């Protein structure tokens, strides 16, 4: 979540008063785009792995029997992980252009919305809604994973918001309004802390602006 990050582009551009682009400038920009795309692909793959590991732990500590609902949820999580890995493969094969990154991150964020909603559904399908402490850990652990691995505002929010909305609903239904508030507040505090830390770490280069 840096100064170079925009809604779906995340790439720097020069301001209107910058000097004309040279061949060296273009080569450096292409190299920066390639490095950024490589990092984003690696983070996508690691986050897909975190989803699978987290789902396994949730089933181990959940209150529901390992029945059809839990198996269906694991299948949905596996599908989300495969979609994220597929996005990584497509990104790795794409040319290093800013337009490619914008298209990749747009599709990537859409997949993360599905992954977040699917993760939140585990609060119901894995039988976590009646245990506030486990549900709080279930919710905030993956928000932390998104912040640590994705590191960009839009992908983090794409996963975290639907996940928190559904887990909060599960907490309200299973335990009560105060428990739902605790679950929502836990995730919101992590997101707020990540945003503050990102703003404090932003570069002060005036030639960079949001794209």
Fold topology:
Elements: H1 23-61, H2 68-93, H3 98-125, H4 132-149, H5 153-174, H6 177-200
Helix pairs in contact: 1-2, 1-3, 1-4, 2-3, 3-5, 4-5, 4-6, 5-6
Explain this structure to me?
The protein is mostly helical. 74% of the residues lie in helices and 0% in strands. It contains six helices and no strands. Helix 1 runs parallel beside helix 3 (98-125), helix 3 (98-125) runs parallel beside helix 5 (153-174) and helix 4 (132-149) runs antiparallel to helix 5 (153-174). It is globular.
- Secondary structure tally: strands: 0
Shape: globular
Count structural domains: 1
What is the SS-derived class?
Answer: mainly alpha
N/C terminus separation: 13 Å
Mean pLDDT: 76
Largest sheet: none
Q: Helix share of residues?
A: over 70%
Output the radius of gyration.
19 Å
Q: Could you list the spans in which at least 5 consecutive residues all have pLDDT below 50? A: 1-21, 204-211
Strand content: under 5%
Question: How are helices and strands ordered from N to C?
Answer: HHHHHH
Number of helices: 6
């Amino acid at each position: 979540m840096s100064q170079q990050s925009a809604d779906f582009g995340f790439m720097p551009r020069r301001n209107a008063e910058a000097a004309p682009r040279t061949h060296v400038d273009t080569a450096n920009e292409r190299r920066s785009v390639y490095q950024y795309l490589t990092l984003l692909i690696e983070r996508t793959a690691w986050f897909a792995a975190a989803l699978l590991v987290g789902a396994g732990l949730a089933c181990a500590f959940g209150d529901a029997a390992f029945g059809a609902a839990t198996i269906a949820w694991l299948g949905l999580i596996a599908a989300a992980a495969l979609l994220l890995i597929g996005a990584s493969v497509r990104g790795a094969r794409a040319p290093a252009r800013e337009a490619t990154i914008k298209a990749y991150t747009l599709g990537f964020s859409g997949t993360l919305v599905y992954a977040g909603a699917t993760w939140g559904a585990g609060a119901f399908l894995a039988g976590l809604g009646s245990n506030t402490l486990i549900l709080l850990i279930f919710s905030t652990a993956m928000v932390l994973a998104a912040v640590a691995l994705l590191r960009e505002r839009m992908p983090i929010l794409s996963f975290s918001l639907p996940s928190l909305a559904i887990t909060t609903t599960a907490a309200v239904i299973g335990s009560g309004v105060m428990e739902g508030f605790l679950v929502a507040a836990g995730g919101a505090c992590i997101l707020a802390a990540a945003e503050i830390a990102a703003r404090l770490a932003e570069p002060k280069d005036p030639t960079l602006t949001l794209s």
